[in-house]
Amino acid sequence: MSHLPILGELFISHRIEFLLIGLVLALIIGMNNSEKALYWIAASSTVYIISELLSNVPTNYLIEMILLLVGTMALGGIIGFLMVVIILRIRER
Question: Worst-scoring range by mean pLDDT, 55-59, 65-69, 71-75?
Answer without folding.
Answer: 55-59
